[in-house]
Design a protein that fits this description.
homodimer, 248 residues, five-stranded mixed β-sheet, 22% strand, DNA-binding
Chain lengths: 248, 248
DNA sequence: CGGGATGTTGAGGCAAGTCAATCTAAGTGG
DNA sequence: CCACTTAGATTGACTTGCCTCAACATCCCG
């Protein structure tokens, strides 16, 4: 870890991400215990939160910023398993665990960090929270099923369309315009998440622009000019509703 | 469901799959409760256990046989998200849930079925079991990460090698020879699981035969004549150890 | 001993990958 | 404030691994 853990969060009640995070499921008395366990930590952009295979000592709830989760092969091939943002749980819940993926900040990152064994003890003492987490994990499995369908059976255009719509849905509950999608990650990350190359990602964006499906005012912003058409393209059975994510 | 639920299991103590199933984590007193909730059910080969989108009323622990879990696109493209066998948990744990995948028996299937809400209540009353299940779900997420790497970044040969080794590892704890791998599923299932076509699967098997990596005495059996070479090919970081699986 | 389902093999095509050149944006230092 | 550098993104030309289509082989079960 590149960044020492700091102080307790001063105030959970007015925390902006709490409504969308695991902590919202904890009743007031438990909340005080949880807050006393938490330590705020900052990871600057590009810093590594943990490395594939390393021993995990903490669990994090993301407050601000985003991380990419990925696995590497010895020859450098990379699969990005997901992106985590505000409200998401990073690091998994097994008490003794080595990181299955690497996690790296793709913007300046603020997190609440917890000692794994303390967090686990807290879980065990809060069956309701435990059940909630089970549902979160279950949702993550379903999301991974969808991603397997994307990687195994969808064309480049379908993958990109699906990706844009999922990103769009991700920020809807925070009240952002769902038709203006920010892309905090570079093209190489999109490629490695969707099982494509940066060239194919770029070409597909170009094709979408030409067909009037999207506009790309700058490389980090996409405007969905024709969301319904994208939706058809993406080949979703049902739009997965926005959810709290978990990654490890 | 094509098959009415039958009687309680007569005897959990001598159950052959219990050591490898969730029930092994339940202490004797809870076990009696669990047994009284269980109903044995049979699904003949090819029968549908549940359909994508249908309302789930039960959770199943598989006693004998195997199922494929898959999602379909309107045009017929299929992604098999996994195969479940003895000891695995089928149907997920959310109390109110529609099936995210379809589940179909690929051999005659025997299961212990539980009413979802009763099972959930039992879970809530058994924090230890709940934590265990959380670990199982976590392991499933990690397995899906690996599968994403396979689908997004691995060549056909690497995919097939990985698949064979995972199948081999799956049956090791039951004491089967890990170098003789049974393939209960047809080639089309392997293809739809690995994001390939049946032709590519067949051709890759042929290439492996030619290189002396495997022998294929009949279409449903593969002998790993050179497991270490397959292991290199598969591009695993570490061999995922055998685990209890969960699917929904 | 048929006949349908499943598996294998071959020929040719194409979607996406590879390689390479160019363009753009964001810093950085003089 | 502007030349210079560098990382990231785009575009084009070419290649290729896998898919598609088609023919044939094999297995299984009545």
């Amino acid at each position: 870890m590149h960044c020492a853990l700091g102080s307790k969060p001063p105030d959970c009640v007015h925390c902006t991400v709490r409504p969308h995070a695991l902590c919202s499921q904890v009743e007031p008395t438990g909340m005080e215990t949880l807050r006393s366990m938490a330590r705020i930590a900052l990871f600057p952009n590009r810093s590594v939160v943990f490395d594939q295979g390393s021993v995990l000592r903490n669990v994090f709830i993301i407050t601000r910023g985003m991380v990419r989760l990925f696995r590497l092969m010895p020859d450098g091939r990379r699969q990005i398993t997901g992106f985590l943002g505000p409200g998401d749980l990073l690091g998994g819940i097994k008490v003794k665990a080595n990181a299955h993926c690497s996690a790296q900040a793709i913007s300046d990152l603020v997190v609440c960090g917890f000692d794994r064994s303390s967090f686990s003890a807290f879980l065990q003492a809060n069956p309701t929270l435990c059940m909630t987490l089970l549902v979160v994990a279950t949702d993550e499995i379903e999301a991974q099923y969808d991603h397997a369908m994307l990687l195994g059976r969808k064309h480049a255009a379908e993958r990109i369309a699906a990706f844009l719509l999922l990103l769009s849905a991700r920020w809807k509950p925070i009240g952002l315009n769902p038709n203006v999608v920010g892309l905090p990650m570079p093209r190489s990350d999109i490629a490695d998440h969707l099982g494509l190359t940066i060239e194919t990602v770029s070409r597909t964006f170009a094709k979408f622009k030409q067909s009037g499906l999207i506009e790309v005012p700058d490389a980090k912003t996409v405007i969905l000019s024709n969301a319904p058409a994208l939706y058809d393209l993406a080949g979703f059975e049902e739009l997965p509703d926005s959810r709290m994510a978990i990654g490890m």
